[in-house]
Amino acid sequence: MPSLFIDGAAGTTGLEIRERLAGREELHLITLDESRRRDEAARRAALNDADFVILCLPDDAAREAVALIDNPNTRVIDASTAHRVAPGWTYGMAELDPGQTAAIARARFVSNPGCYPTGFLALVRPLVRAGLVPVDWPISVNAVSGYSGGGKAMIAEFESGYEPTAFRGYGLAQTHKHVPEMQRHAGLAHPPIFMPAVVRVYRGMLVEVPLPLHALPGRPRRAAIEAALVDAYADAPLVTVATDAASLARIEENAGTDRVTLRVCGHDDQARLIATLDNLGKGAAGAAVQNLNIMAGLDPLAGLKA
Hints:
seven-stranded mixed β-sheet, six-stranded parallel β-sheet, 9 helices, 13 strands, 21% strand
């Protein structure tokens, strides 16, 4: 029975992972009580005793945790931003490319995707791969997330009434930490213009990429863009392409699940590519559990809210 240690299990993502692992008899969970949770010697022992480790920590703490592992066997899934473009780490989005699931299955170090990049890459990567969007195209992405994505501090701000707004745009300096991940794994020559915001919804996410089809090389039709996404995710049980282009897209659509829904709206001159997902589900904890299942040779959907 493989063993698992979640470093940072008391945080928002850690608690969501624990929820998905409840009742999983094929895994042995290593836990530390509150008095030892921040004890370095206890953490070092747990990190090295476990077959699998999931890191739910700030970036610097995640790097420190990896440095504490002094054996060649412990396999790591890092849910922070620290290793998403780092050499030697496999990107943990099973649906990204053909062969990505196999790469995750054999990897020792896997970086969990970010919530915003999951929606962005689900929309853009297949189109770049198919040549429908050039690698040097100036891509922009608008995205709104539930406030739970900001962790305990932001949750307290919104739920205490300290944060008075319903919509808070941020990342205005174009230095958001998710941008290198988006560029690298989409295969783009230039970083996308990223316009994130937090809204007064606990969980859920909507990511949108506008495409001027009339200006793209070859002037692909809306149907060709949609067909490329349908083909890319034909065998991806957690990704659905909604082919009713007139349907509404709501941020809450996949809240509480580990699914992603994609849409190609508009017409043959202008298209709006839209992804809806749960920032805590497929955007965080759900992806971590999916990666764990793949790495451990278990049912990839075990414990997930599909």
